[in-house]
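2024-03-11 09:14:02 INFO receiving multi-entity request
2024-03-11 09:14:02 INFO entity count = three
2024-03-11 09:14:03 INFO echoing inputs for audit
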Amino acid sequence: MTRLWHWTQVLYLLSCLLSVSWATKGNILSFENTAIVRTVELGGSLVAVTTTYAIQAVTGDTSEYIVALSEAEHGVTSWIEATLKGSVDPLQLKPLGYKHDYAAHLYSITLPKVPVKGETTSLVLETVQTKATYPWPPSSPQGGEQLLKYESDLLVISPYVTSVQRTKVRGPASIRSFTTPEGLGAFTDEPTAVQAGSVVTYGPYKNIPASANPFFAEESQKRILIHYEFNEGVLTVVKLQRAAEISHWGSNLNIENQILLRNTGPTLKGHFSRLDHQFQGHYHSASAQSIRSVPMLLPAGINTPYYYDLIGNVSTSKFRPSRSGKSRTLQFSYLDLRPRYPLLGGWNYSFTLGWDAPLSDSAKWDAKTGRYIIGVPYWTPITGSYVEEAEVKIVLPEGATDVEVFPPFNPLTVNRTVHTSYLDTTGRPAIILTNTRITDRHTGVIYVTYKVPFTAHLKKPIAVAAATFSVFVLALAARRVDPRIHK
Amino acid sequence: MPDAIPLPRVAPETVANTTSLLRIIALSLISGAAIASRLFAVINFESIIHEFDPWFNYRATRVLAAKGFYEFWNWFDPTAWYPLGRVVGGTIYPGLMATSGVIYNILHGLNLPVDIRNVCVLLAPGFSALTAWATYMFTKELKDASAGLIAASFIGIAPGYISRSVAGSYDNEAIAIFLLMFTFFTWIKALKLGSAFFGTIAAVFYFYMVAAWGGYVFITNMIPLHALVLLLMGRYTNRLYVAYSSWYAVGTLSSMQVPFVGFQPVRTSEHMAALGVFGLLQLVAFSDLVRSHVGSKQFRTLLRVALVASGILGGAVIVLLTLKGWIAPWTGRFYSLWDTEYAKKYIPIIASVSEHQPTAWPSFFMDLHVLITIFPAGVILCFKELRDEHVFVIIYAVMASYFAGVMVRLMLTLTPVVCVAAAIATSTLFDTYLDVHEPEDPSAENSVPVVTVSGESHVGGTNVTVTTPAPAPTPSKKAKKAQAQAAAPASSIASTIAEATGTAGVTTRQDRGVFGLGSRLVVVALWVYMLLFFVVHSTWVTSNAYSSPSVVLSSRNPDGSQHIIDDFREAYYWLRQNTPEDAVVMSWWDYGYQIAGMADRPTMVDNNTWNNTHIATVGKAMASSEEVAYPILRKHDVSYVLVIFGSLIGYSGDDINKFLWMIRIAQGIWPDEVSEPSFFTPRGEYKVDEQASPAMKNSVMYKTSYYRFAELYGGNQPQDRVRNQNLPMKGPTLDYLEEAFTSENWIVRIYAVKGDDELGRDLKVANSFNEGKKRKRGRPLVRRRAVAAV
Amino acid sequence: MLLLSLLSFFLVPACWAISRETAYSDFIDAAASNGGVIDLTTQTFDLLTASDREWSATIQLTALGNTYKCAPCKQFEPSFKTVAKAWSKVAPKHRDNHFFATLDFANGPEVFRRLGLNSAPFVYTYPAAQGDRVPANGKVDPIPFDFTVSEFDPKSFSEGISRFTPVKIPYKPPTDFKPIVSAIVAILTLSLGYRVALPLLLNRWFWAILSIGSSLIFISGFMFVRIRGNPYVAAGSGGAQWIAPGYQNQFGMEVQVVAFIYGILTFSFLSMTLFVPRLPSKGRQTLAVGIWSGVTVIVFSVLIGFFKLKNGGYPFRLLF
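2024-03-11 09:21:47 INFO inference complete, emitting structure
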């Protein structure tokens, strides 16, 4: 059995070597994984996966390390970042797209330097998965428990040979059930899945050959399925439209978010009973699936936050502004956002949340180039939720010229339009960035640089003055003219 | 001749400019006050549409702004009056929506992207400023500019008008009062000058009024009445003929362009008076013409006879037509103004509306305060110098006070005339007591020729109109010159100037006046104080009584801070976001417009109560037992039933309190199936507690209101805070409906109508079968109740 | 023996039949004799409302005895009588299928007890329980006449009852001569006192008084009292009270009081405006001004106080 295995393996490796299918310089012999540890932090609508690769340079001729994500994994992954263990600044990560003979999506990580032969480094690959979990049972009565299922591959695949790897799955609360994979005799001889508290550990699995290939995916890859309890709201922002409007006259940055929120936990079975809801609130037995309020951390130093929906102001919220002072950039303004009604499983709530912030906090004028630089945060995360489709619109002051945009990560589309607002004559240049499946890691800042000639600043006052003056002239004329036919 | 106080000498043109400038400033300040005092609602709550009807107007305006006028014109709304639908374009007065639509488009044309909601919310305050201006113009025609200013300030803050024009009460009255006053102003102007031009303007504004408010009938009858009275007083002039004819012809033709009015102006009795007077005027004019040419006495008598005869004939014809049915008799709402019993008996819906109730004196005083005490004085002063326009005011005063007495909402038409009359009175008082001249000593009395000079003074910046009593001797050249320079002063300023400029104005003055400073100070101080009191009163009334949008309720926390109760919007928004687009909601008609506006769902009945039967259907469904109601609900594919329930926090405007009207209206259609007495206890009391009649306890309304309410008290005695009664310990149960949503304070309760049972059983049977399981599921709840009881 | 018993067996129902026949004819006679109204006792009531009745009946349950102090009973009695009378004019073939009867509490307290009535008057209509006049919906139990919707006046009553009678009750309200008479009188007086009337009609102050008077009455809530039919004063505990409690309510007397107050204020205002300046001497003017200002202030404070009574939450006051 094993013998046969080795033969096939060897054949396959040869074929790989012969076929120069590799996009980059290195090849599957240039590294090997001494150890891979994957930790899966189960959550509501977000699942954070941290994979630590302890790698050893075999040939020492390249600094390109390749990580592979299987089709399924890649489908749910919406954020990926690689760092060296112990450091914070991310390494360069280049997606190579889907490669058929690897049956995986490949990413090439560029190490800081070309490692010498035999040198070991440990890489940390962080991914955030969305839509990786689903409620099961799909609907539960009011006050019922909230159970989710998470499904994933058992083994971390890699184009390199792996000597040992294990997977830890940590649930937020109790874990109801998990699959114990069978038929892994090739890699292990112990019981392969052990539960300790709310942690399930798979592995260790030893000396795994280069696993990023269709053959392995068929033969040895296993799916694992974990059924666990989740005691916080499962929130999804179905649609986010953020508009940031810059005003130099008011030295004000207005940010307005139109948000459609949905409780994507198990849908409510039967109907909502206020009585039970009140009792649950009363006895602190509130179940996770009825979301009464959504805590939000708004930027520091903002003023006049407003929160309304299609039929007017929503008066049921608490806002605590950040203490102003030197260290205010560190703190946040806290908003306890209460929907009009508790958000039960499957219910929607759409609203508008906006605020004004002093422009000086987020914009500065570069005297040398004579350009303004402004930073607009991509979005203000709602804890434990992600955005399915996001649209960020940045409205620059009227008459702004040669505009350049530097988004923190690649948006799907970038469009430029003209936005006419109060007392505009020519309209204001605006940039619209769209994106899908934004997680709480996508909190980068969009930097925009632009020039505003001095005359453009004067546009409004001149226009207003002209209008007023013309009114006076008209009045003057009207007063003088005498329409009577015969005096 | 002595002065009470010496005056500085100023050049007349300086005075002229100063006065006009002052007048402009005063008017703008008044407008500011008028607008500001209507913003309490926005400040205390938010910029929101109030009450019920405004929500429809707002919705219609949104359609107008979004789709343009023609779309709006033939807008058929399938979601209202489900399943009948409603032809909106033809069943509304589009003036209001058109107005705000135009404003909206202009603003957007100027790149001022104001939200349509704010346009609607602030329309009423804006127009109140215009109303103040129109009242100023009107009163100026009656007395003079100073009286006009006073009248403007009165109408600006009078609660009687504010009550229907605070920010957010986006209703027809918001613009109608301005149109009313301006039409009257132009009518008076036309009558004075005998100008067809002003007559036409009056007609145009009359048309606008017709397009804006059903109350246009008031104008339609006021102006003819005025003309008629003038005829009877033998005051026929060509000016009257020109003014009336131009107004009637143009006005009527244009008013028929409004689809909702159509041919009413020639078909219904409300409009017959105008037509009759028109005919009469033609006859009189003709006879006048003839008389001016033919001299013979017999012919005149003959003519007079013929005149009377034809007049009677015309009346007879109209009566005949009415009897034959060619002319529709008076419509219900209008008729109920005369025969006050009518509505109560035959149109309970009209009688059920609170604003159609008669007015008790406290609300008169509440709305007009000190004005109502001096408004008769103003009318008397109108009698004193009885020019044509004064006749108008007198008639207006009498009619309006009758109507205001019959219907609360018509207080609105009384307020302007009260303000005008009171202003005339007040300004006369101030003229008398602020005039610095002291009369000659008694010895030299009645030596000076008396020439009453009225109208605006020259220094007022407008032309002089001198009317002298018929046989009065034409004053000497000198006197004329004197008048031309400075006629009897309009305001104290003007008078001082007239004196200061040293003209012979003295000679034209009447030899009466006030001696000394003392009396002057006392009276002026007293009335200034009274007016200040009025201002304080108005502010208080406005802020406390008239500035709450009944959509959002507010209560006071123990610490005195304001606590907002927002149940309506909570429930409506829930409906909007979490129910299918086409889910029909059944509720009592009061909430129809709000549901359509805020929840955006089809409704069975709404505040446009055009179909009595449909409303009665809802009433029947509410009043009868579940078994009876269920087929009705299914037949109208209702999927949600919405009831308003105040017992938890003591909100008295809830459905149980309106229930009797539902029963009455249902009984009107189905006397055998719904009978009012069966909802009373044998002792004839209206009760919801243990002794409630079985019909009451089984009615859908009762069940849906109190469903599971008793459990909230966890074993203690449940209490109805509105009716102050103890409820049964065991609440009602539901078989054909199930609770779908209940707002935070239980004010709004929404029930889903169950579908057919899977096994095709009757739902009641199915329920009783499921009982077993239900009880098991219910147990934890029971335990909680026990805890609560401890 | 046997034969007898058999005979009796046959006879019993016969007697019943006979008794019912007699009762029926009795009712007809009673109605005819007493202007269409049958005066009932408990027994006759049971007969009239027997479960096998082929006729329908409208029965007034009332308490006219002075001991009961039932004002509405006395109020309603005449209209019932008139309508019954009107019914008795109908052709016999219709008339004898529907009876109007009245049962006084004195004559049949049991009936009241049985029906669980502890107030009066009540009017129940018993539809026919047998024969061809049984209502379509088959409901034969008594239908109460609803006084809450329609009033005690005979017109609405006859309309209400006509739903149950074989043919519509031919009730015609008596032509009201009052307006006609008064009109005639007015015309006569005018034509006779032409000399007197004409100057009056031509005098503006006559009209002034007229219009001011009417509008004063109207703004004092006259129409409210008339429409709601409120009493002049309420016979409350401890003597008659003339101020109706509550903001949206008032009694007849309040109209007069308020109108009077308004009148005084108006008059004092007018005298300040018009009459004072005519006074030739300074002293008299000062005096007059003092008086009228005083009157204004005092009366207005009274008005405010009155208003506070009606509207508890009103915060302001002038003198007291």
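2024-03-11 09:21:48 INFO post-check: Strands of chain B lie at 76-77, 86-87, 553-556, 562-565, 584-586, 638-644, 719-720, 725-726, 737-742, 748-753.
2024-03-11 09:21:48 INFO post-check: Chain B touches chain A at residues 46-48, 111-113, 552, 564, 566, 569-574, 576-578, 597-598, 708, 711-712, 738-744, 746, 752, 781, 784, 787-788 (CB under 8 Å).
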